[in-house]
């Protein structure tokens, strides 16, 4: 996708829309399948929902690590693409893919064998919840390598401006996941009912098929790595990998901060009982109605700002950011209204437990109110990443999580003995604080006023 020199708002909006639409559709597809899967698990038992939640806290740390790595790759890809340095682009993709596969296999082995120790030491759950969580985590760990491959594929393709292909892969994968989940969880088409184990099995089969399609796209005729389908593919370039990880690791740490904070918050909420834990877990899933459609604007900001700066066109970068912010605000206002005005209706999609529905609805109202600052921060942070300032969003996340969310949650729970609503209010306050920090740091970095290229592409 070539960088246009037409600065008119209509042309820029059209180009942003051409990327945002597939990303938004992809996010909505993930949200829908997440809803469907959670609704099926929610009808097994509250224990099953809790087991899924505990296991996801661990697998999401792995996701966060490789999401950060692929963000680093995506920044290099965007700037190389903008500079039309396609040799550099291929090198970045090859080294990212190879290093990711090696690292994720090592992590999968650790998680599979240490699943009981990890869950017991992190959460101290009751025996029935522990057994269900270990069962799910061990099965779903086999899908981690395929998940990492899909993150690489999506990141590098989006870095070139190609959001349609990742969207189609996600569509295919989610259809497989939803279909197999129904069959495996409830025992349809002659299959035995496997419950939560069936949900995990459906997930890894879908991830495997999605990863295979993604690799085909990279190595097929016209694909980014087509010319490297030989011994060169397995040559590690430690310097190149170091550069990618140097840029990507702040984003990885930012996401890991989130996941570690989620571990602590989950432990706090677990102290309130299984119903609050289920309400929190289902509320997180329902909240995706707002933040997943808007998440694409942050990705678009990274891609288009990175490409514009790679092409040394800062005026175009400013124009892209302005239009991306407008789009994110409009989408957020529409989607957040569903959480604020129809919270119980949304929760009823996920469970038929009225106690969980009533409690979870309060979570959705609180989170709905703070969606706008959260999603605007996402766009500003995306622009900073595209310019190579990947450490700034990490710093913001660290201050919000460890300066607001975690200490206040622990204080309100164990010292003042407040209920779970107080924890959710603290989470909302954290997002507002981070919005002001993101805006301030974005202004101070003045990314369109100085040379912020990661390197020169000659």
Automatic annotation (TrEMBL):
Residues spanning the membrane: 20-41, 61-80, 92-113, 133-156, 168-187, 199-219, 256-279, 291-311, 323-343, 363-383, 395-415, 421-442
Predominant cellular place of this UniProt entry's protein: membrane
Location relative to the cell: Cell membrane
Keywords assigned by UniProt, alphabetized: Antiport, Cell membrane, Ion transport, Membrane, Transmembrane, Transmembrane helix, Transport
Keyword Nucleotidyltransferase found: no
Record flagged with keyword Transport: yes
Membrane topology: Multi-pass membrane protein
Pfam families: MatE (PF01554)
Alphabetical list of InterPro entries matching this protein: MATE_fam (IPR002528), MATE_MdtK (IPR050222), MdtK-like (IPR048279)
Family membership: Belongs to the multi antimicrobial extrusion (MATE) (TC 2.A.66.1) family.
Summary of the function given for this chain in its UniProt record: Multidrug efflux pump.
PANTHER family per record: FMN_FAD EXPORTER YEEO-RELATED, MULTIDRUG RESISTANCE PROTEIN NORM-RELATED
UniProt-recorded name of the protein: Probable multidrug resistance protein NorM
Species this protein is from: Clostridium omnivorum
């Amino acid at each position: 996708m070539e960088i246009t020199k037409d600065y008119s708002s209509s042309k820029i909006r059209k180009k942003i829309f051409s990327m945002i639409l597939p990303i938004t559709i992809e996010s909505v597809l993930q949200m829908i399948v997440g809803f469907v899967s959670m609704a099926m698990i929610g009808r097994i038992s509250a224990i099953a929902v809790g087991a899924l939640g505990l296991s996801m806290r661990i697998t999401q740390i792995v996701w966060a690590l490789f999401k950060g790595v692929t963000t680093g790759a995506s920044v290099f890809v965007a700037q190389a693409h903008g500079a039309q340095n396609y040799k550099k682009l291929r090198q970045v993709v090859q080294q990212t893919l190879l290093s990711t596969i090696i690292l994720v296999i090592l992590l999968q082995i650790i998680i599979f064998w240490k699943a009981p120790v990890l869950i017991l030491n992190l959460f101290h759950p009751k025996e029935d919840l522990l057994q269900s969580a270990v069962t799910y985590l061990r099965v779903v760990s086999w899908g981690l390598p395929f998940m990492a491959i899909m993150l690489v594929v999506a990141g590098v393709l989006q870095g070139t401006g190609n959001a349609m292909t990742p969207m189609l892969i996600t569509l295919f994968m989610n259809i497989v996941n939803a279909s197999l989940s129904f069959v495996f969880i409830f025992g349809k088409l002659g299959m035995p009912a496997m419950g939560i184990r069936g949900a995990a099995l459906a997930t890894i089969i879908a991830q495997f098929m999605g990863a295979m399609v993604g690799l085909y796209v990279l190595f097929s005729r016209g694909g980014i790595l087509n010319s490297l389908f030989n011994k060169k593919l397995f040559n590690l370039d430690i310097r190149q990998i170091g550069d990618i990880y140097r840029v990507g690791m702040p984003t990885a740490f930012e996401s890991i901060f989130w996941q570690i904070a989620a571990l602590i918050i989950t432990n706090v909420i677990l102290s309130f009982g299984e119903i609050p834990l289920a309400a929190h877990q289902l509320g997180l899933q329902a909240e995706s109605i707002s933040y997943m459609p808007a998440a694409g604007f942050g990705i678009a900001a990274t891609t288009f700002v990175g490409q514009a700066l790679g092409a040394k066109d800062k005026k175009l970068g400013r124009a892209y950011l302005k239009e991306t912010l407008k789009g994110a605000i409009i989408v957020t206002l529409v989607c957040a209204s569903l959480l604020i005005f129809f919270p119980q209706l949304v929760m009823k999609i996920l469970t038929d437990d009225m106690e969980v529905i009533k409690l979870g609805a309060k979570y959705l109202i609180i989170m709905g109110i703070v969606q706008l600052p959260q999603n605007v921060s996402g766009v500003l942070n995306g622009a900073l990443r595209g310019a190579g300032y990947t450490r700034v969003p990490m710093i913001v996340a660290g201050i919000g999580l460890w300066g607001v969310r975690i200490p206040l949650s622990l204080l309100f729970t164990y010292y003042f003995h407040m209920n779970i609503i107080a924890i959710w209010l603290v989470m909302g306050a954290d997002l507002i604080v981070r919005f002001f920090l993101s805006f301030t740091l974005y202004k101070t970095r003045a990314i369109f006023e100085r040379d912020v290229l990661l390197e020169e592409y000659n």
